[in-house]
Structure formats: C-alpha cells, structure tokens
Design brief:
The protein is of the alpha+beta class and 461 residues long. The chain folds into two domains: 299 residues, Zn peptidases (Aminopeptidase, 3-Layer(aba) Sandwich); 114 residues, Copper Amine Oxidase, Chain A, domain 1. It comes from Saccharibacillus kuerlensis.
C-alpha cells in the first residue's frame, strides 16, 4: 500500500508538472506561422486576424493595387506621432522577409498588450510615442508568380510571362513584378545611370522605361511621403550583409554610421562598403537617403543557395538576429523626430463658419506663420483633392477653380497663375499643412487670427 501511495504521488506530480506546460504552449500559439510558405493569401488573412486581436495597437489599409488586383497592404503598429518604416518582398523570391515583418508585428503587439518587456525594451513606452509602419509585401504579384507559377495569372499573359522568364515555366528564381520590372530598380535616384540593366521585361534586372512607373513603386513613394518616417528598413535576401549608405552627405555620415554599427552588432550582418554601392541607385533606401536625407538600411537576410527563395528553415536564425531591430529603430526614430525644431510648434484652434475643425492639431503657429490642415478645410468647402506622391503636390478642384500646391515650395498655382506664399506647405507628423493666407487666398475666404490666443477663424466665401 505504501508503494502504491508513492506511485500515485509521483503520477500526480507529473500531471501537475505537465499541465502548466501544455497550457503555456497553447498560450504562445501565434497567428503568424513562420514554418509555412508565406503567400499573399496567408498575409491578407494574418493581417486581418492581427488587427482583430490587437485593435488598440494594430491597424491596416491598402496603399494601392497591383496590375492583377492584389492589395499592397500597410500595417501600422503603435499610437505615437513619430514614425519609422519597414518593408519586405520588393523581390518575388524574397518572401521570407514578409514573414519576418509579420512576425515582428505580432511579437511586439503581444508584448505591448501583455505589458511585458521584449528583449529588454519597454514595448509600451516605445509604441506609445512611435508608430512603426510596415509594408510586408511590396510586390505581391511577383511573390505569387514565384510561389505558384502561371496558374494564378490569366491565360492571356502566360506566354508573355514565359518569355520574360527566358522560356522557362519554372518561376522559382523570379524577382520582378508580373510586368517583368524590378521594383527595387525603379526609384528615382540615379535611375538613368543604373548599370547592368536589361532593356526589356525580364525575371530580374529590368529597371523599366522611366522611374516610378509601376503601381507598386507609385504606392511606396506616395505612402512614404504620407507617413513621413524618420528611418526606413527595407528587408531583402540573401547574404547576411547590410547596405546603409548611398552617396550619403558628409553632414549625415557619422549619424548613419553609428546606427549601421549598432545594426551590425545586433545582427552580425557585414556592412557593405559605401564605395561598393556608390554607383548603384534605383533602390528604395537609395531614394530614401537621397530624397529625405534620413537614415535607411537594406539588410539582406540568410545565406543564398542558388537562384531561388530561402527555405523556411532559415527563419529561426534570421529572427534571432533581427528580433529587436524594430523596437530599436523605433526608439532611434523617436529621438530624431523629437530633436527636430518643427516638432516644437504652438497648436492653435481652428474654426470654419463658427464650427471647430478637429485635428491633432488642426492648426499651429510656427516662427510667425500660421498653418492649417488643408484636407478638412478644402473638403468642407467643396473641393476634390488629388495627391501626386511623386511630385509631392496637391491639386484641388472646386468652386473657385483649380488650386495646385507642392510640399516644400512657396510657389503655388491658382487657375493657371503663379502665386507666392511667405512660407511653403509642409508635413507635420505625416499630415499636410498649408499657410492659412495661401489657402484662404485660393478659395476666396476671409479669415482672422486672434492676437492673444492665435485662434484661426475662417468664413466660407
């Protein structure tokens, strides 16, 4: 009997020991499964499930559609005013970078919701002051062609796709979009002088007939200006190397090199020499560094084994190397954002016909100029707006005719005539603002500014 009691106690202890472990395993089950081929369909499903599970911290939207109707999804993580930007799968065969983007989103969202630190980082503190935007799959047509071949595309284009693939029906090496244009050779930085270009549509290496002509690239440029990120990270594969410099101005060199050194310390990725990359161009981070003057990085994950995708078995090691990168970049991005003089503004109230215009802020004063958020005002006054992300210009058509202005330029166009403002329209925290005098001149509306409070009152013409 004594022996039986001892055995029973042992069984009870085993059950008690295994019970919590089983519960723990169930608790850590994730939406994003890094062990599967990460397709456009899986991506779309997972984004929706993450937004439903973490509604306070995750949002998503389409920033455009491909030629074959696939959405280019953007996912926002966080609630802060400062922004940073991550993206993956510019190239069709590099879809493991999409898995990395998505796994990063879920791991950070879970840590935020549970109120725990992640790899030593205060997730809530970071994501309450910074928003990390992701476009996990820039090129969903290319990814789909690489993964499934011709069956996912209309029969009418099969022969054209085969020609672009040099006569082969095996698309495992495919990098381009479904038009045979390489999206990471399409950005308008040294585009005209790109070397090793193929002059017709092809599975890789064709830069197109002009910069920013693909739907994928147009969406990315427009979205970048919309969110106004402080730092960008564009994941590619393969090689475990890090591109961090493209003709970076001397004034920014030490800033960017410091970040590159930390990136290397975290990931072990070898830095590519600035001299090696000086004759490149056309890539997303090349464009970002040159046009926005801000840090940008292209990490190449994994070790290449032939002209095809990385195996899913490569994911655990690349995740280990990169799992803290998103939170670290968000922290660094916030520091850059907070140091900017334009982020020390004086918000003021804005009224249209006696009704308060909502915004965060709707208007502000900076260095003697009062700026107003143009979108709610022009829409309320009956104007239809069109944004051109390539030129950073807005065209407004309405009761007083056509009004066109460009971010960063004091010269605007009103019914074909040039008008000049004392200050230029600009972005603040991803929202477009315009000097109140320029806007009211364009729409023919009287306005007043309270000398004590700075409150702006506009009346409809």
């Amino acid at each position: 009997m004594k022996k039986f009691g001892i055995m029973l106690l042992a069984v009870i202890l085993v059950v008690l020991t295994l019970g919590p472990a089983g519960q723990s395993q169930a608790a850590v089950k994730t939406i994003v499964d890094p062990s599967v081929t990460y397709s456009y369909g899986v991506l779309t499903r997972d984004i929706r499930e993450l937004a439903a599970k973490y509604p306070d911290i995750v949002e998503y939207k389409s920033i455009g559609r491909t030629l074959y109707g696939r959405e280019i999804w953007a996912v926002g993580l966080g609630t802060g005013r400062a922004t940073v930007f991550f993206n993956g799968s510019h190239h069709g065969r590099e879809w493991l970078t999409t898995t990395l983007n998505m796994y990063m989103i879920e791991q950070y969202a879970a840590a935020y919701t549970e109120g725990r630190r992640f790899e030593g980082y205060d997730v809530r503190g970071i994501l309450d002051k910074t928003k990390i935007w992701f476009v996990p799959m820039v090129n969903p047509d290319g990814v789909t062609l690489q993964q499934t071949g011709l069956k996912s595309f209309p029969a009418s284009v099969h022969q054209a796709l085969i020609r672009m693939n040099e006569g082969s029906r095996n698309f495992k090496r495919w990098k381009a979009n479904a038009q045979g244009i390489d999206p990471n050779r399409q950005y308008d930085t040294n585009w005209a002088n790109l070397v090793n270009n193929y002059y017709s549509p092809r599975w890789m290496g064709h830069k197109g007939t002009a910069p920013v002509t693909t739907l994928e690239n147009k969406a990315m440029v427009t979205f970048t200006y919309e969110i106004d990120p402080e730092i960008a990270v564009s994941y590619h594969s393969a090689g475990r190397i890090l591109f961090w410099n493209f003709r970076t101005p001397a004034v920014n060199y030490s800033r960017d090199k410091r970040l590159a050194d930390i990136f290397t310390r975290f990931t072990g990725y070898r830095q590519v020499s600035p001299a090696f990359n000086s004759n490149g161009g056309g890539g997303y981070t090349d464009w970002f560094i040159q046009r926005l003057g801000r840090p940008a990085f292209t990490p190449e994950i994994g070790i290449k084994r032939g002209e095809t995708h990385l195996p899913v078995s490569a994911f655990p090691e690349e995740w280990r190397r990169n799992k803290k990168i998103g939170l670290w970049i968000a922290e660094e991005g916030y520091a850059l954002w907070a140091a900017k003089p334009q982020n020390r503004i004086n918000p003021v109230s804005l009224f249209l016909d006696g009704k308060r215009v909502e915004g965060d802020p709707a208007a502000f004063n900076e260095s003697g100029t009062t700026y107003v958020s143009y979108k709610p005002l022009l829409t309320s006054l009956g104007y239809k707006l069109a944004w051109d992300g390539t030129s950073k210009s807005v065209t407004a058509n309405g009761p007083q005719g056509t009004f066109r202005f460009t971010l960063g330029k004091k010269e605007a166009e009103l019914n074909g005539q040039t008008v000049t403002s004392n200050a230029a329209p600009r972005l603040h925290e991803g929202i477009g603002y315009i000097p109140v005098r320029l806007l009211t001149q364009a729409v023919g509306a009287p306005f007043s500014v309270d000398k004590d409070t700075g409150m702006v009152s506009i009346k409809s013409p």
